[in-house]
Structure formats: C-alpha cells, structure tokens
Amino acid sequence: MSDALTEEFFAEVSDKYYPQVLEGLELLAAGDVAGGIEILSRPLHTIKGVTGFMPGFEPASSFTHTVESFLKKLQSDSLPHSADNISLAAHGVNSIFAVIEQIRDLGAPDQDEMDAVSQVLEAASGGGSAAGPAGASCLAVGQEQGRAIVRITAPRIHRKHQRDQIVGAIITQPQETPVVLDVSQVKTFGSSAWEDLSDLAGHWSISVRGLCGAARETFHAGNMDALMPLLPADDAPGEGA
Amino acid sequence: MRALIAEDEFLGRKVLSAFLNTLFEVDVAVNGKEAVTAFQIAHAEGKPYDLILMDIMMPEMDGLEALALIRAEEHSKKLRPQVKVLMTTALDDAKTVIRSFHDGEAAGYIVKPVHKDKLFAELQKLGFVTE
Predict the structure, then answer these.
(1) Is B21 helix (H, G, I), strand (E, B) or coil?
(2) How far apart are alpha carbons B121 and B111 in whole angstroms?
C-alpha cells in the first residue's frame, strides 16, 4: 500500500497542494497573514498527517509540524507579522516541499538543512538560539586586494544585534575602501538585514559574494542587486578556475 | 476529558473503551449518524468531546461522511477548538487516508487492529498523555 499511497500523495501534492500553497504564500507576501495561513493550513495538515503514515517520510511529518507550529503562532499573533517572520514562514513552507522531494528522490532528507530551518523557526519563536546569543560575533573582517572583506560567519542573520554588527563593521571602513560582504556561509539572511545594508550602499561601495540558498531569495526579493552588485563565485582568492 | 468511540463492532467498542476509560469519560456510537448526534448533544450540554475515535466503514452513515458533517457544523457554528479525530479503520487505501486528513482534517489514522501502544502513541502526539 505504501507505494500506492506515495504515488497518490505526490499526485495530490502536484495537483492540489502546490496551487493551494502558492495561493497562501501570495497572500502572505501581500500582507494578508490570516488569510494566507488559513489557506496554507489544509495542505500542510494533510502533508503532516499523510507523511506520518508513509514509511520513510516520517521526518517530513515532524518537520511539517514545526513549520505548522510557527504559522499557528503567527496566526494567533503570538509572533509579530514582521517582514522577517513572514519571510521565515515562506521559507519553512517551501522547505517542506524540498524535504518530501528529497525523501522521494534520494531516500532521505538533507538533515542538516532541515535541522537548520527548524532551529531558526524555533529561535524566531523565542524557543531556541540558532542565531546565537546576543553579543556573539557573527562576522570576521579582513583585507584582500585593497578591499575590506566582511565575512559573515553565522548561518542565520535575523537578529538585531547581528544586523548592528554588520552595519558597524562596514561603517568603520574608510568610505573609499570597497567593501565585499562574503555570505558564502550564510543560509538565511533576513530582509531587514538587507534593508539595513541598502541604507549604507549609497555611502560605501558594497558588493556581495557567495550568495546562495534562501539568502539569495531575500536579496533578490528586495531588489538589492540594484544597490549591491553580486561578485562572481570565483572572486575569492584561491577559488574558481 | 470526554471521548466518543464511533464503532459498529461490539468487540471493537469494548476494547477501545477499555483502553480509553482511564483517561476519558467515554461514550459510544454504533454508526456515523449516532456519532454526529452525540457530537451535537455534547456541545448542547456544554461538554464537547475532546477526542473522537471514528471507524470508517459503518452502517447507515460512514465515518468520513460523519466527520464531514461534524467539521461543517464546527465551521458554521464557529465551534473552537475543533475536536481531534482519530480514524480507526481497516481501510488503508491511499485515497481514504488522504481524504481523511485533507477533507476531514483528521488528527491521525490508525489501521486496525488497534493495539494499545499504537493508540497511545497517537494520544501522546495529540498531547492527551505524556511519556
């Protein structure tokens, strides 16, 4: 039965849940948090329940539960409807689909990525410390070919103290020195953090390298490429061809 | 806490009642129609069920139809929280499993025979029992 269930489940995902989820995410992005979550709740509940019943897909069920809990907190106003939280919610929902597809295609999810998303959701809910304790350094500053390299070392940039550190690292550079923001170790980068940097972009020459994953999504969603050019992947010394 | 067991087989009702009666005040219904009536009476009494164990294949009205009526009533009368429903059934075909979760918003699905550890694992997930 499990093969038949898997086949039927993915047919439903494709025909029914994707469209529902896309509609929910569009409402979320448009600021209708209650309406968006209302639409998201049915397909996510189904994914949680059915994957819990599908051998091998149990991790997807637990992960969906974590995302669902975050959405419920947003829905009940236990969490503020900030741009960062909405962005995290959308990332969590998208990650559910990545997880079920990984299990189907590869036999197992990317556990590190799944754990990282779970941790950042829990941290944003006030229950974890994925972004690190307040005051912990999230970056390292160095020099490279006449440029200041601000290398972000934390995998998640969402908290104010992290944003303040990054802004502080840039504004202490001479304005004639180009600044390279190296985010190659970063998985998620909140839109508020990009907005902070966009305020500096007219005063410092800031470029970005190593952009990947969900950090890329928030970067492009905020049209940051118009303010901070992206450097090629082989910009860092010793990398590339 | 109150629980309703909707189950058409006498032995099934007896076993499930024995499992639950240490945790819940248990009522039983022998088909879907009775289950819907019991749900309505419990709300009218101001003591709604916390849990329903719902068989799917029952005479007169099956479990999925009964669950659809219960959800419709919760929706129209804005009854919150929704009652948690565990489907307890011999049917494990893909469409029925998916329909239970998607259309019926079931909280869980247990394929018969219902063993105590399987049932209590689901109750633990729902927060009715702790480890």
Answers:
(1) coil
(2) 13
Domain at A147, CATH number: 3.30.750.24
Of all residues in chain A, the one with the smallest CA distance to B92 is: A1
Helices (H), chain B: 10-20, 32-44, 63-76, 94-102, 116-125
Nearest to B97 among A16, A42, A53 (CB): A53
Structure tokens at B72: 């419709």
Closest Cα of chain A to B105: distance in Å? 7
Q: Residue A47 sits in a domain of what CATH number?
A: 1.20.120.160
Q: Are A156 and A107 members of one domain?
A: no
Q: Give the domain extent around B115.
A: 2-125
pLDDT in tens, chain A (241 residues): 568 889 999 999 999 998 999 999 999 888 899 999 999 999 999 999 999 888 899 999 999 999 999 999 998 888 888 888 888 899 999 999 999 999 999 999 988 888 888 888 888 887 544 444 445 678 888 888 889 999 998 888 877 778 888 988 888 788 888 999 999 888 888 888 888 898 888 888 999 999 987 788 888 888 898 899 999 877 766 544 3
CA B78 to chain centre: 19
Per the structure, how many domains does chain A have? 2
Count of domains forming chain B: 1
- Tell me whether residue B130 is in a domain: no
Distance of alpha carbon A33 from its chain centroid, rounded? Answer: 18
Q: Does B100 touch chain A (CB under 8 A)?
A: yes
Domain boundary among A101, A124, A147: A124
In a domain, A38, yes or no: yes
